[in-house]
Specification:
Elements (H helix, E strand, L loop, with lengths): L2 H18 L3 E7 L1 H4 L5 E9 L4 E9 L7 E11 L7 H14 L4 E4 L6 E10 L4 H30 L5 H10 L2
Antiparallel strand pairs: 1-2, 2-3, 3-4, 4-6, 5-6
Helix pairs in contact: 1-4, 3-4, 3-5, 4-5
Length: 176
C-alpha cells in the first residue's frame, strides 16, 4: 500500500470513530484535490466544547512530507474565528506564556491574528502495523481535543478582557 493510501486509511478510521462518538458532530474527509491542498484532511465538529459548551472545528491531517519512515499527524482545533483587534496583543502574550505550562501541543494565533487555534503534531512510525498507527492517530487527536479544551477557559478570559495575562497564568498554575 502506498503511503498516501495508508494516510487516507488512517483518516477514515478516525472519521469512523468520530461518527460514532457522542461528543462529536459531523465528520467528513476532504481529499487533497477537493481542498486544492497537498494533503487529505478530516474535518470534524467538536460539540459542547470548552466552558461555554460551543461547537468548534477540528482538522486532522498528515503533514505532506515525502518520508515513509516517520509520518507526522497533525490536529488543529479552531477555538475562535474572531480575535478582537484590541485583544490580539494580550492574546498573543497569553498564548506564549500558557504554552510554557501545557504538556503538549501549542496555542497559536493565525497569520492575520484573527483566529485562535490549538495545534498538536506527533510523529508516527510509517512502517508500523496499521493497528498501532490507528491507535496512535486516535490518541493524538483526542489528546489535542482534551488539551485544547482544558486550557481554553483561561484564554477566553483574555479574549473577553476579564483578566490580565499575569492573572491568567496564576490561575492556570494553581488549577483555578
Amino acid at each position: 500500500m502506498k503511503m498516501d493510501e495508508k494516510k487516507l486509511e488512517l483518516l477514515k478510521s478516525l472519521e469512523a470513530e468520530y461518527k460514532e462518538a457522542e461528543d462529536m458532530g459531523e465528520a467528513s474527509i476532504f481529499t487533497a484535490k477537493e481542498l486544492n491542498a497537498p494533503m487529505d484532511m478530516l474535518r470534524a465538529e467538536i460539540a459542547a466544547f470548552g466552558p461555554d459548551l460551543v461547537s468548534v472545528l477540528g482538522e486532522f491531517f498528515f503533514m505532506p512530507f515525502e518520508e515513509t519512515e516517520v509520518i507526522y499527524f497533525t490536529s488543529v482545533i479552531t477555538l475562535s474565528n474572531t480575535v478582537p483587534e484590541e485583544s490580539a496583543d494580550d492574546v498573543a502574550a497569553a498564548v506564549a506564556r500558557l504554552n510554557y505550562y501545557i504538556p503538549c501541543g501549542c496555542y497559536a494565533l493565525g497569520e492575520d491574528d484573527k483566529n485562535l487555534v490549538f495545534k498538536y503534531t506527533v510523529p508516527i512510525v510509517g512502517e508500523d502495523e496499521t493497528e498501532h498507527q490507528t491507535s496512535a492517530v486516535s490518541i493524538a487527536a483526542n489528546t489535542a481535543i482534551m488539551t485544547a479544551e482544558r486550557y481554553m477557559g483561561y484564554l477566553k478570559l483574555i479574549l473577553m478582557n476579564e483578566v490580565t495575562v499575569d492573572e491568567m497564568i496564576e490561575m492556570a498554575k494553581n488549577g483555578k
